[in-house]
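Progress report, Aim 2. The chain analyzed during this reporting quarter is listed below.
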Amino acid sequence: MERMKITYLEHSGFMCETENNIVIFDYHQDPKAKVEEMIKQSQKKIYFFVSHNHWDHFNPHINQFENRVNRYIIHEDCDLILQNKNKIMRMKPGDKQYIDDIEVIMYDSTDVGGSFYVTVDNHTIFHAGDLNWWHWAGESDEENRMASESYFKKIEEIKEKNVEIAFFPVDARQEMAREWGVRNFLERINVTGLLVPMHANGRKWIPSYEFRFRFPHVNIWIPAEYGEEKEGL
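Predicted structure tokens for the chain:
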């Protein structure tokens, strides 16, 4: 199995290059033009994944790459205009699809859209989209209780209990609750390769002592800048 290379684009956007394929998640912006560079240099198959229609996860101008892209796998609420509509595969939570040699499962979200579990070239990738335990200091106790119940329910629906690469929100705006979602995720899902935080919305995440103590064997990559790459996975 050839090793994977991951490139951080921006916010929740990542590009993963495997032996035969390039999969791109939640392209919003690409300040270092890494996707354009890859498309020019590589002859591998290219797939874009869009978890939901929020502006910071979905840029409709991904259609500029249509001539080189094999398929766009998008949540059904996203409005993407292409010349060749057959290149669009719309999904909703609960769907499972096979696209060429890639298996895709869409799970639910605690916001809008869904999350992706992707098997490609013997690698498994989970991209959470906006699936997270969203606890906000400014919300009422009842609203936060409902949010936590929704999270617990939807995280339990994930049947695949092992994943090599996991992209998961660790949002600075949540303050003391920033790690709640990712901790709970790791208690239920075995991340065998790498945890990659995303959706920071502020200062870079530095795992707390409690987090490191609870998950000492979880490898974490926290990109420091746009366009940064992680190789050898």
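The radius of gyration is 17 Å. The CA atoms of residues 76 and 90 lie 5 Å apart. These observations will guide the mutagenesis work planned for the next reporting period.
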